[in-house]
Amino acid sequence: MVSKAGEETQGAVAQATALGVVIQLPSPLDATLREWRRRYGGQAAAAIAPHITLVSGSTTDWDSAVRHVRKVAAHMPVFRVGIRGTGTFRPISPVVFMNVIEGAQACGRLHDALVDGPLRHELSYGYHPHLTIAHEVEDSIMDLAQEELSGESMTFPVDSIGLFGTDSAGAWSLREELELGGPTS
Question: Distance between CA 44 and CA 37 in Å, rounded?
Answer without folding.
Answer: 9
